[in-house]
Design a protein that fits this description.
The chain has helices at about 10-25, 35-40, 65-70, 90-105, 130-140, 160-180, 195-205, 215-220, 225-230, 255-265, 280-295; strands spanning about 50, 75-80, 110-115, 145-150, 185-190, 210-215, 235-240, 270. It has about 300 residues and is α/β, with parallel strands linked by helices.
């Protein structure tokens, strides 16, 4: 696709958003004296490397924490669970187990995710609405700041104006709860950076941001390095992914990803969502983790 070329009006708007983002960092994006989700990243010396629990083959399985520790990762992104199991991470007893094991193994829960929305779309299935609201409670109970809302599969919003309008209205309704709980709803989809930003602006809440997946966006033909700079501080977390090979051997230029993230002041989680496992699951993840550490160090 063509590069993401910004008009003068878009450049001015982007400059204003970055300036506002700086003010949000200084004063707390959700108000009060404690740091908000995006603000917290400014206090990290560098990056943290995590992994999706479904990449480990342990969706909503607390044993993913031990496996992540063994593989040398800093944390795990935990899915709320499958629809047929009624998204079990919404239950306090499972939340408690994750908290206890995270402390025991010395790993963190980077964020939560609702992959079930790919099969039970937020835009049209009323079952998904309480899931999003409950995910905010789960984040709060588990000390997590970000929950990924997935818009793929049946939830895809490409060329779906009616579905997009419905999602925006539902996000407007739930955003105040997220703001009050100091939780960010991370919007991940096949849409372009410009389309994501239009949705965020229409929702009008600092609690709704973009969960940026470099592999998915590159797969769609977008210039991911320009998109990262365009979205700026509207990015809440990042998925590392390469559809073609192990990291550094495929089509994603991760050093350029780092330069783009530096330009927007991002310091936080880089979460592995593996696709290619040519060396087997564990060895491939360890390879990708070591590769990423060389580009996204924990101390800078």
């Amino acid at each position: 696709m063509e590069p993401l070329l910004l008009t003068r009006r878009e450049m001015m708007a982007k400059s204003a958003r970055v300036a506002l983002g700086g003010l949000a960092f200084a004063g707390g994006v959700f108000g009060g004296s404690s740091p908000g989700p995006r603000e917290t990243q400014t206090h990290l010396r560098g990056f943290k490397i995590g992994v999706c629990d479904w990449t480990l083959g342990k969706r909503t399985d607390p044993s993913a924490l031990e496996m992540a520790k063994r593989l040398g990762l800093d944390g795990v992104q935990v899915d709320l669970g499958r629809p047929e199991d009624d998204l079990p991470l919404r239950k306090p007893e499972l939340q408690k187990k994750y908290r206890e094991l995270a402390k025991a193994y010395g790993v963190e829960i980077s964020s939560l995710a609702i992959a079930a929305m790919n099969d039970v779309p937020y835009k049209s299935d009323p079952r998904a609405e309480p899931w999003v609201a409950d995910s905010i409670d789960a984040c709060k109970a588990m000390g997590v700041r970000v929950v990924l809302l997935a818009f793929f599969g049946k939830g895809d919003l490409r060329n779906d104006a009616k579905g997009t309008d419905a999602v925006i209205q539902k996000l407007k309704q739930v955003a105040p709860k997220a703001e009050k709980s100091r939780v960010i709803l991370g919007f991940e989809s096949w849409l372009s950076a410009r389309q994501h930003l239009e949705i965020l602006d229409r929702v009008g809440s600092s609690a709704v941001q973009v969960y940026y997946d470099v592999g998915n966006s590159h797969h769609e033909g977008y210039n991911i390095y320009e998109e990262i700079r365009f979205l700026g501080q509207r990015i809440c977390e990042v998925h590392a992914k390469d559809y073609d090979d192990l990291y550094g051997k495929g089509s994603i230029n991760f050093p350029e990803v780092r330069r783009a993230l530096d330009d927007i002041g991002y310091r936080g989680w880089i979460v592995i969502e593996g696709v290619k496992m040519p060396r087997g699951l564990e060895e491939s993840i360890q390879y990708d983790e070591r590769y990423l550490r060389g580009i996204f160090p924990s101390k800078i």
